[in-house]
Amino acid sequence: MIEAVGLTKRYGDKTAVDDLSFQVRPGMVTGFLGPNGSGKSTTMRMVLGLDTPTAGHVTVNGYPYRRLPNAPRHVGALLDAKAVHGGRDAYRHLLSIAQLSGIPAHRVDDVLQLVGLSEVAGRRTKGFSLGMGQRLGIAAALLGDPQVLLFDEPVNGLDPEGILWVRNLMKSLAAEGRTVFVSSHLMSEMALTADHLVVIARGRLLADMSVREFIAANSAGFARVRVPDTDEGQREKLTAALTAAGAQVLPEQDGAVRVTGLPLPRISDVAHEAGVRLWELSPHHASLEEAYMRLTQGMVDYRSTADPQIGMRPEPAPGREDGWDDEPGWSPPQQPVHASDRPTLTEDAR
Amino acid sequence: MAVAQVVRSEWTKIRSVASTVWTLSVALVVTVALGVLISWLTRREFGNMPARDRLTFDPTFISFAGMSLGQLAMIVFGVLVVSNEYSTGMIRTSLAAVPQRGVFYGSKLAVATAPAFVVALVTAFAAFFLGQAVLGPHRTSLGEDGVLRAVVGGALYMTLIAVFSMGVAAMLRSPMLSLGVLMPLFFLLSPILGTVEATKKVGQYLPDQAGARVMQVVTIGDDVPYGPWGGLGIMALWCLVVVAGGYLLLRRRDA
Predict the structure, then answer these.
(1) Residue A25: its pLDDT value, please?
(2) Residue B194: inside a domain, yes or no?
(3) Are A314 and A293 spatial neighbours (Cβ–Cβ below 8 Å)?
(4) DSSP state at residue A287
(5) Taking residues B155-176, what's their average pLDDT?
(6) If DSSP codes are grouped into helix, strand and coil, which group holds residue A325?
């Protein structure tokens, strides 16, 4: 259990972390999200007693880290996978950390095995790929078999197999009742890994809730409706009928319309009453990424574009991983799927 | 127990990087080789030296002539052993494992000082014996007054150079910055102050000049206001100040 109360960190007149309060509970993976420079790493350093808060405090299992008895046996952390001396081999890098924490040397072999680096244990770490570095960092975090784990961007530089491995590792660590606190900027990854989210921007807490609640609270679901493109005027007819029924209708570029404010059965009824056939009527659930973008819009320090609309409602491009889907078996029709899996309503649409 | 853990870990760290072996062996080889060379040249030129120089000739001190260059490697050793933690980022892992920063810092310095002292001791005796062998008729021996003190003092001098560098590196954290301060201090400022009569008195209190006094056996005709151990004491005081400064900063600073 990690608990932050009114945590604040100022560097001169720049406030990196501003009155942050949250709890990270055991038995689940808590994702820590925020734009670059939002204070995630600073917060993690304060949890580990590396940086001293300007105000407020943060405790691990009820103690400030620096007063936690036998801290490395209770807390393991991966802050920066590159924080190794390149001239030291992997085994002795881990051995020095184990010795520092009074952890028996055989644990080094155990964790090397666990992260799959046994074969390169004797190699200098400067020859390691980014992915191997991440695995080494994770190994160091796991050395003390700790109940509380912090990972700062653990999937950076990992290949898909490595990402899957980290995801399963996080989940199994949480399933064992451990507290797992993971920061990431990969939303789709967080959607698959985290149970709970702590979202910050510019050092302030934006949300502290489950992934499901977060998406529900920060996105507007909508229905995508498509009429036969063979009949002129059908779309205008439907738009008029739906607007009359109290819905907001936005045309989409590919000829479909986006309908908000009416449940799906009601849309179907209205279309039926108006005598309009439908080729597609599909529910759309926002992804974690969309919800996150909506929430943090305008709070990002470093942006790469002048277009204020970008990121507001990312247009689901073909082939894009939607990331979050709370209806198993249903896929957005934009995704390339096998013809047999394609919803029947859209079958003739392309 | 905490201290034993940190000491063991630091020993693993220091043994497992190549820079330790490199810097320490360069310190040994350069000091001894240059000392032998200068001793040999002195023997050849002895007859041509002014009478005054011949009378105040210090065979012990001349065999340590290589130390002026050899200490460069000791400085690099001291700087790297501390600043490595910062340049790699290992400091965060280390301090997360040992939240008692004083224990970490003290153990690190102790573990780094031990091999530096052993190498310095070997260097001092090797430089002395080889230097004397080359000096031939002008040589002295360990049994003479103050010679053993000068040789052991030479080892302590080299060790304190490394300790001083560790303290500076702990304060400045960056290896480049630390070397950028230490090199001019020992190789520019100290010699420059020594050449001008007016500033000589100030230069005498710099760590290297004060400490080097312990290696001199023949001190006729110089007006240094402290003795051999007094000089080494001044150097030790310098070390104490920078090491304490490094500790205070480490304790207060965010890692």
Answers:
(1) 95
(2) yes
(3) yes
(4) P
(5) 96
(6) coil
Q: Which domain holds residue A249?
A: 221-284+315-346
Mean pLDDT of A336-349: 39
- Cβ of B17 within 8 Å of Cβ of A140? The answer is no
In A9-48, the residues whose Cβ lies within 8 Å of chain B are 45, 48
CB pairs under 8 A between A and B: 92
DSSP string, B147-185: HHHHHHHHHHHHHHHHHHHHHHHHHH--HHHHHHHHHHI
| Tokens found for residue B151 | 């040789």
DSSP letter at A285 equals P
Task: Give the residue from A189, A217, A245 where a domain finishes.
Answer: A217
Question: Any idea what the Cα angle at residue B96 is, between residues B94 and B101, rounded to 5°?
Answer: 70
B89 to A83: CB separation less than 8 angstroms, yes or no:
yes
B93 CB within 8 Å of a chain A CB: yes
Chain A closest-CA separation from residue B8 CA (Å): 6
ipTM, two decimals:
0.86
Number of domains making up chain A: 2
Find the farthest-apart pair of alpha carbons in chain A and give their distance in angstroms, rounded: 77
pLDDT of residue A206: 87
Model pLDDT for residues A197-233, shown as the tens digit of each residue: 999 888 899 889 898 888 777 766 778 888 887 777 8
Looking at the structure, do residues A185 and A246 belong to the same domain, yes or no?
no
Q: What is the CATH number of the domain that holds A108?
A: 3.40.50.300
Residue B52 touches partner A, C-beta closer than 8 Å: no
Residues A213 and A231 in one domain: no
Please tell me the least confidently modeled range out of A25-29, A66-70, B35-39: A66-70
The verdict on A187 and A60 lying in the same domain is: yes
Q: Which of A65, A79, A96 sits opposite B92 (nearest CB)?
A: A79
Distance (Å) from the C-alpha of residue B19 to the closest C-alpha of chain A? Answer: 9
pLDDT in tens, A62-82: 999 988 888 889 999 999 888
